[in-house]
């Protein structure tokens, strides 16, 4: 589940460019810390005893009737059950529910030479590290990611507005597996052009 | 592949509240006709020889950097390959890429008594009717669906603006299976509170 951080005895590390999966019990609170301030953390959750039920952005948009979740909102699964309750957010509340996780195809198209770390592989590897496998790559909750929309529907990728040490807290509404990826995207500005460590706690 | 319509000798019917799947060859154009004008048509596409590759709304948003596709845009797969090219649109261009297909859970939450037809089951049944199966229910391209967004990210479900007989044309950029569902949603205004037949041609 990642090594400990000097920042806190209970802090788990999501290494830059890598993913980490962890078990979370119903009622526990996951705190996701943007250690550097500019790191997007792709976040997935799966029902602990049935990985075919997962945190769904498209179902959560229907439940919330909004493009970005905020404190007080409950994100739901693809079976429309409550999965994560948004408890606290010390950032300005800019997160993304729209964009697919990066993958080998994305970096190929961006002109990367050879293999580029990516969130889709990080999800698979993180689950594999705890003996699990998902049939699919759900569209992630991209914490701290700054994708503004315009009146005409145009989207943009912009540097995160969050600052070092800011965090969000999400409460598990069922037993689940959470997976975080410190997005390795360094070819567009979503992580300020570099990937850094993030941290989390489960309490 | 649905019965023929009196409206045209080559028109296939998507019966109200039901789904239909069809094979489409690379280069063929699929015309989707809003026969009644107010019917949302949930649309999926799968690579003909690999149903694990499918039309992806979350990957298409990254490719297009917009919330709604328009003529001249190419929608892509979850492997970021071109799948459907938007050739023509006689509507005002209002479609949806944000909302999950309706399902039994959705209608339960809306208070439906007993089984309610739904697009998720329509997808599965339509594929099964041609001997196929998908592991997942991708988030659909909701043709004609009117989901406006506000500056603050709030979304709404609104009656379609399309008129009877208006249509969109999509060109297949690979051999694929297309699936249409005449959305049976009659508990919110997306289909003007009732489900009607839609039609399509493949040429």
Molecular structure report:
The structure is a homodimer of 203-residue chains. Chain A is mainly beta. In chain A, 13% of the residues lie in helices and 33% in strands. In chain A, a hairpin with a 2-residue loop joins strand 5 (41-47) and strand 6. The relative contact order of chain A is 0.33. The A-B interface holds A 56-59, 61-62, 65-68, 78-81, 98-100, 103, 105-106, 109, 135-137, 139, 149, 151-156 and B 56-59, 61-62, 65-68, 78-81, 98-100, 103, 105-106, 109, 135-137, 139, 149, 151-156.
- Going across the biggest sheet of chain A, name each strand in turn: 1-2-12-4-10-8-7
Structural class, judged by helices and strands of chain A?
A: mainly beta
Q: How many β strands of chain A by DSSP?
A: 12
H/E series of chain A: EEEEEEHEEHHEEEE
Largest interface (CB < 8 Å): A-B, 32 and 32 residues
Any low-confidence stretches of chain A, pLDDT <50, length ≥5? none
Helix content of chain A: 10-25%
Question: Over all CA atoms, what is the radius of gyration of chain A?
Answer: 16 Å
Sheet with most strands of chain A: 7 strands, antiparallel
- Oligomeric description of these chains: homodimer
> What is the number of helical segments of chain A per DSSP (H or I, 4+ residues)?
3
Determine the mean pLDDT of chain A. 95
Report the β-strand fraction of chain A as a percent range. 25-35%
Distance between the termini of chain A: 14 Å
Q: Which shape of chain A, going by the Cα principal axes?
A: globular
């Amino acid at each position: 589940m990642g090594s400990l951080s000097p920042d806190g005895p209970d802090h788990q590390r999501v290494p830059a460019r890598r993913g980490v999966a962890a078990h979370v019990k119903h009622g526990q609170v996951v705190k996701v810390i943007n250690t550097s301030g500019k790191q997007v953390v792709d976040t997935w959750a799966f029902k602990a005893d049935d990985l075919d039920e997962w945190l769904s952005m498209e179902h959560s948009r229907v439940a919330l009737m909004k493009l970005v979740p905020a404190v007080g909102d409950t994100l739901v699964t693809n079976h429309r059950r409550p999965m994560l309750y948004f408890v606290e957010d010390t950032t300005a509340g800019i997160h993304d529910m729209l964009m697919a996780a990066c993958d080998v195809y994305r970096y190929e198209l961006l002109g990367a030479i050879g293999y580029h770390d990516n969130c889709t592989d990080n999800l698979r590897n993180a689950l594999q590290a705890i003996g699990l496998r998902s049939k699919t790559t759900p569209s992630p909750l991209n914490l701290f990611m700054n994708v503004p929309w315009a009146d005409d529907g145009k989207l943009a990728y912009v540097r995160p507005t969050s600052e070092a040490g800011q965090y969000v807290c999400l409460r598990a509404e069922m037993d689940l597996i959470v997976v975080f990826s410190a997005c390795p995207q360094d070819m567009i500005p979503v992580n300020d052009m570099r990937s850094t460590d993030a941290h989390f706690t489960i309490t």
